[in-house]
UniProtKB/TrEMBL annotation:
Residue spans of biased composition, Basic and acidic residues class: 1079-1093, 1116-1128, 1138-1152
Region named Disordered: 1071-1204
GO BP terms: intracellular distribution of mitochondria
PROSITE patterns according to UniProt: CLU
InterPro entries with a match to the protein in the record: CLU-central (IPR033646), CLU_dom (IPR025697), CLU_prot (IPR027523), GSKIP_dom_sf (IPR023231), TPR-like_helical_dom_sf (IPR011990)
GO MF annotation list: mRNA binding
Any Pfam family: eIF3_p135
Protein name (record): Clustered mitochondria-like protein
Start and end residues of each Clu domain: 148-392
GO cellular component: cytoplasm
Keyword Cytoplasm: yes
UniProt KW keywords: Cytoplasm
Lineage, broadest ranks: Eukaryota, Metazoa, Chordata, Craniata, Vertebrata
The organism of origin for this protein: Oryzias melastigma (Marine medaka)
Length: 1204
């Protein structure tokens, strides 16, 4: 681990030293073994030498300067007599045949022998540090000496060319891996590993192919200059046609991105092994986006011979398939019907240009084909998900065809709706207040799958409430729940109609992906269905503005989500189904909030993301006019124009002339090229114009980069990092002074490389994810031992499948370290957490927000093991990364500063604790757990200094907060009272002593005022959220209320449960099980806990509250748990991920507050709600059997909870 200069990481420092970000070992020359090792100029052996056993000839230049020619033959290796000018394969005099090449090299070179011996004696590095990662990890900084990194002796042997002689069949490799058996755990592990390895190799091939194609080394296979297609390395690569219907270049890029999202959606479906998608990835390189796919046998013929029938070309499904009937088609339609159910897609009918009716389970563009390998393939999935009505002007017009009198009626209705400014589905005054719907640069705005599931859950909640209200209006549930009573059925029908259910007797929500799609016509028979779909899509679009964005803002206020950079902000928004095109609306919501100051770090990230994304689009266009020899100069010029106010080409021209004079050459005329004429003002206008078109913001970015710095607190260095990560640029590792006004801070020599940026399909690790979720479930119930066993199992499975080099493996090891620490084994926790840090650095990046958090946790475990120096270095490393990525003004900085204040010397302690208090007060207010804890720590430090008056002031503030938050009788409040009393007594004692003995008297502090190492560790554990303090009385109230609701529900359902003394016994028994502190539970669920979903008879063990009396307060996330009591969301701490239920939930969330990953997306087939009135009525009233609650999935059992 690297040393960090404490002066540059101290509070208030404006220095951002980049040289400390990467290890110094990468900046030193590795020890030399040989000067050169290559194939000899006499290689390969001639025919007569092959017959005598010669394999190859090698030339070696030793460190001593000796040139040797070596023969590799059947017997081994020996020196021959060949020279650079003559060929003589005979063995040299006194030459010995060695079985190993290294033995021969040790014999001829003493320097090689010494270095090689040292290498063998070196301790072996852990596999997680040396094993190649499955996918490329971007790094925006590279070593200062780029030429040394290029040095590769193996590549000069030319052996890698032979390995690439055979073109791989990527589709067959991927489908073959997916078709492997899955009957046992071992078979599933082998299958998951094979799929991951094939996908990783495919992505690496895509990166290499993109560089080769865009560099111009591959000829297109078609004659279309507007849409060139390329075949390279078994890959089909193309840019896609720029259609005016979809929005030209922006629409083309959106279609490629949405195609990948559609492939991901169908790839994640379980139980659909018969439906295949091609291996797909998209790659951005030098401003060009390419789609890459594997080649499926026989599918290429579908684009040839248009005169042949669709069936002859393998086309079985789609608008162009035509009417046909075959067993293969019926099998494909059954698979598509299953997939439509899982993806909440509606079966519908569209009209072809010829007027034929075609039933579809997908978007109108999708095609189902039978490949020559006998597999069914689904292509063209870019419109798989429903349209976003907020950005479809078609949402204000009728989509379906109308004829005759209907047209007159529709036009009249349109006039009425136009005058009323609202159409069915929009909330009242929605269009006026939100400015939506509006146009967008492309017409492929689709809803995210997370939003679709969240909206379905929202509608299901509305449905159950409506059923309950209607039953109450008709005499109550007890009178209507009989099977012979039609009132329950009528209530179900009325609720289904009001919420927009496809069925009139059960809740079923699906969406038509072709509604609001230009160029799609529907038959008149579909008018009623299309009207309903238009209404639902308007409601879903408005749901983003009215529910999801406010929920995200509220979550940020409660510090359950604290994005630190663009990646974490994107992840947090996507978890709630919010597309990044809503960034402008997010910024407006923050501006209109009464807590704008507390949300300034979110606003900073939002504005930075808007700026870098708009700048990237301008950069992509800018690069199209740059030739290869001028690439570095053009990129550096663009960055200077972007970050330096009023930058002009004259800066570059003067620097170029000076360098040319020093080198004795004439200055080039590069300043006359088109790219060199770009100025900072022109670039800024282009960026602002793009931001206004895309995000609907005006004058938000100001007139230059200094506006972002002054008004939002953005750092130019953070903007530079974000831009490089998004474009694939890598800069030389050095300190950049971006505030300069008279010279270019970035030179062409600082541009080391530009890497392809690849987006690919993510392959799940099924068994490991299931074990991880089971561990989280145990942890939420307070079962540490069972959670520990499951986490060890999950870590083992991740190691088997992906060698631990996976983001989910990092989260698993981090949680394992936490549980191990809570069990009292700090040494093992430190070891496991160190592994998590290495994984995060290698897979996510050395400065990823998750890496920052892992460093902080490692610091805690290191301190617990007595490694104070290492702990300080970990926290200083985390703080330096925070300063680089975001800046000091972030809530997590207060966490790191509090920990540093607990470990450092007196003067430094006060400096960091005061800064933590300033940040906590600013972000949380005075009545907050974090602020109160920091006040207590400051009072503790003041006592050690002897400043009892200041200590009393801070402890009084802490006591006020604890009393307001916990009450008078809580142990934390009592602890604060006791500490304040001790301070007061000591202050009186010191004052009395000074009066009696004079000013020269030495103050004597009592022993209790100096915290022990155990107390400091406990406080550090609470600061970082590893363990939390909870309110015991709130848990008791929750238990009592839970059992009362059980009894009430059982009484209404006619089920005999427990009463009287049995309830008391059960409460006592459950209290007895709550003796372990897990640190992973947020209190305040409203009945939607996991145990209730599994049935009411199994009583859930309550998590344990930690009533520690160490004088430390609770962590920030605890407040979130208290404030979200009525939201029914179970939380996770700073080192864990939330439990995600459902078999279809294969994605593991990133954990930790700064990553914003605390909310689980909803599953369409399993609503995350307790047993409701509607479910009970449906199970009794519909045909006397259990109903299908959502999309045909069985409802929750009757023994579940009935909502009050």
């Amino acid at each position: 681990m690297m040393e960090v200069h404490r002066s540059t990481s101290s509070p208030g420092s404006s220095e951002r030293p980049l040289m400390a970000l990467l290890p110094h070992s990468s900046q030193t020359e590795a020890p030399g073994y040989l000067k050169d090792l290559s194939l000899s100029c006499w290689n390969p052996p001639p025919g007569h030498r092959k017959l005598q056993g010669d394999f190859m000839y090698i030339t070696v230049f030793t460190v001593e300067g000796r040139r040797c020619d070596i023969t590799s033959c059947v017997k081994g290796f020996f020196l021959n007599r060949s020279t650079e000018d003559s060929f003589d394969p005979r063995p040299a005099q006194s030459s010995v045949v060695y079985h190993c090449l290294t033995d021969l090299l040790c014999h001829i070179s003493p320097a090689f022998k010494q270095t090689f011996t040292t290498l063998k004696a070196r301790p072996q590095q852990p596999s997680v540090e040396v094993t190649p990662t499955p996918y490329h990890t971007p790094s925006w900084l590279g070593p200062p000496c780029a030429s040394r990194a290029h040095k590769n002796s193996y590549s000069r042997l030319g052996l890698e060319k032979q390995a690439a002689a055979q073109t791989p069949d990527w589709n067959e490799e991927l489908q073959g891996a997916r078709d492997l058996p899955q009957r046992s755990v071992e078979e599933r592990l082998q299958r998951d590993r094979a799929v991951l390895q094939v996908n990783g190799a495919f992505v690496r091939a895509v990166m290499q192919g993109a560089e080769t194609v865009i560099d111009g080394f591959v000829e297109p296979v078609n004659g279309n200059p507007d849409d060139p297609a390329f075949l390279w390395g078994g890959l089909f690569m193309s840019q896609g046609a720029a259609s005016g219907m979809f929005g030209n270049e922006r629409g083309r890029r959106a279609a490629q991105r949405l195609e990948l999202r559609g492939v991901q959606a169908y790839s994640d479906l379980e139980g659909l092994q018969g439906l295949h998608t091609l291996p797909t990835a998209i790659v951005d390189y030098r401003g060009v986006r390419l789609s890459a796919q594997g080649l499926a046998p026989g599918l290429e013929s579908s684009e040839e011979g248009e005169e042949s029938s669709p069936a002859a070309r393998g086309l079985l499904y789609g608008v162009n398939a035509g009417p046909q009937e075959s067993p293969h088609r019926r099998q494909l339609l059954a698979l598509l019907a299953h997939s439509a159910k899982s993806l909440s897609l509606q079966r519908h009918v569209v009209l072809t240009p010829n007027g034929h009716k075609v039933p579809l389970f997908t978007s109108v563009d999708a095609q189902g084909l039978l490949g020559a390998d006998g597999r069914f393939y689904l292509l063209d999935l870019f419109r798989t998900f429903p349209a976003d009505a907020n950005f479809c002007l078609e949402a204000e017009t009728e989509t379906h065809a109308v004829t005759g009198d209907e047209k007159t009626d529709k036009s009249c209705e349109q006039d009425v709706e136009k005058n009323g400014c609202e159409k069915e589905g929009w909330p009242r005054n929605y269009c006026a207040t939100s400015g939506l719907p509006r146009s967008f640069p492309h017409s492929l705005c689709r809803l995210r799958p997370e939003l679709v599931q969240a909206f379905i859950q929202h509608k299901h909640t509305q449905f159950t409430e409506l059923v309950r209200e209607k039953l109450d209006d008709n005499g109550g549930f007890e009178n209507c729940a009989l099977a012979s009573d039609s009132r329950s059925t009528d209530a179900m029908r009325a609720a289904c109609k009001e919420v927009g259910s496809l069925s009139d007797i059960i809740f079923e929500m699906r969406f038509n992906p072709n509604v609001f799609s230009p160029g799609v016509a529907f038959p008149p028979s579909e008018n009623a269905s299309i009207n309903l779909q238009e209404r639902l899509l308007r409601e879903a679009a408005a749901f983003i503005i009215t529910h999801q964005i406010p929920a995200f803002i509220q979550s940020c206020l409660q510090i359950r989500e604290a994005p630190m950079d663009g990646a974490s902000l994107k992840h947090a928004l996507h978890l709630r189904g919010i597309n990044l095109r809503y960034l402008g609306h997010v910024s407006k919501s923050i501006t209109q909030s009464e807590h704008t100051e507390r949300l300034r770090h979110i606003m900073r990230s939002v504005i930075g993301e808007i700026f870098t994304r708009s700048a990237r689009r301008v950069f992509n266009t800018f690069l199209q006019g740059v030739d290869i020899p001028s690439f570095s100069a053009a990129v550096s010029h663009f960055l200077n124009c972007l970050l330096v106010p009023n930058f002009t080409a004259s800066f570059v021209g003067e620097e170029t002339k000076k360098k040319s004079r020093r080198r004795g050459r004439t200055a080039s005329s590069s300043e006359n090229t088109p790219w060199s004429l770009l100025t900072g003002a022109e670039l800024w206008n282009l960026v602002c114009q793009d931001a206004a078109e895309t995000y609907d913001i005006s004058n938000c970015l100001g007139s230059g980069p200094n506006h972002l710095v002054e008004h939002f607190g953005l750092q130019k260095l953070s903007l530079l990092r974000e831009f490089c990560l998004k474009t694939g640029l890598q800069l030389r590792l050095r300190d950049y002074f971006l505030e300069t006004q008279n010279k270019a801070p970035i030179s062409p020599d600082d541009i080391l490389n530009i890497f392809p940026v690849v987006k690919h399909v993510h392959m799940p690790v099924g068994d490991a994810v299931n074990a991880f979720h089971a561990a989280q479930n145990f942890l939420q119930k307070g079962l540490l031992e069972q959670a520990h066993e499951k986490l060890k199992e999950a870590a083992y499975l991740y190691g088997r499948v992906c060698d631990d080099l996976h983001p989910d493996a990092c989260y698993c090891n981090s949680l394992l370290a936490k549980v191990t620490f809570l069990q009292g084994n700090s040494a093992e926790a430190r070891s496991v957490q160190l592994k998590a840090v290495v994984i995060s650095e290698r897979v996510l990046g050395f400065d990823h927000p998750n890496t920052i958090q892992q460093y902080a946790l490692l610091g805690v475990y290191a301190y617990a093991g007595g490694e104070t120096a290492l702990a300080q270095r970990c926290f200083f490393r985390a703080r330096l990364l925070i300063l680089t990525v975001h800046g000091e003004d972030h809530p997590y900085t207060a966490t790191v500063d509090s920990c540093l204040g607990l470990m450092l010397t007196e003067d430094q302690t006060g400096q960091f604790l005061k800064n933590a208090l300033r940040l906590n007060t600013s972000f949380f207010g005075l009545i907050d757990f974090n602020t109160a804890l920091t006040q207590h720590l400051l009072a503790q430090w003041m006592c050690r200094k002897g400043d009892y008056r200041s200590a009393m002031t801070h402890e009084k503030e802490a006591l006020t907060a604890f009393t307001s938050l916990f009450g008078e009788d809580h142990p934390q409040t009592s602890c604060s009272k006791e500490f304040l009393s001790t301070i007061t007594k000591q202050a009186v004692k010191v004052e009395r002593t000074l009066r009696q003995a004079g000013a020269d008297c030495t103050e004597q502090t009592v022993e209790c005022l100096n915290p022990t190492t155990e107390t400091v560790l406990e406080q550090m554990v609470l600061v970082t959220g590893i363990r939390r303090i909870t309110r015991s009385d709130r848990f008791q109230e929750y238990k009592q209320k839970h059992l009362e609701r059980k009894v009430a529900a059982a009484k209404e359902l006619g089920i005999k449960l427990i009463t009287g003394s049995a309830i008391t016994d059960l409460i006592n028994a459950r209290e007895g099980t709550s003796n372990k502190e897990t640190g992973s539970w947020k209190e305040g669920q409203d009945g939607r806990n996991k145990a209730e979903e599994n049935g009411g008879d199994n009583q859930e063990q309550q998590p344990v509250e930690d009533e520690s009396k160490s004088g430390a307060s609770v962590s920030a996330e605890e407040k979130a748990g208290e404030q979200s009591k009525d939201e029914g969301e179970s939380g996770s701490d700073a080192a864990a991920v939330d439990l995600k239920k459902g078999k279809n939930d294969s994605e593991t969330e990133e954990h930790g507050a700064m990553n914003g990953a605390v909310d689980s997306p909803f599953s369409p087939s399993s609503p995350k709600s307790k047993m409701t009135w509607a479910d009970v009525v449906g199970s009794k009233a519909v045909n006397g059997t259990g109903s299908k609650a959502v999309n045909g999935v069985d409802s929750v059992s009757v023994s579940g909870e009935a909502k009050e």
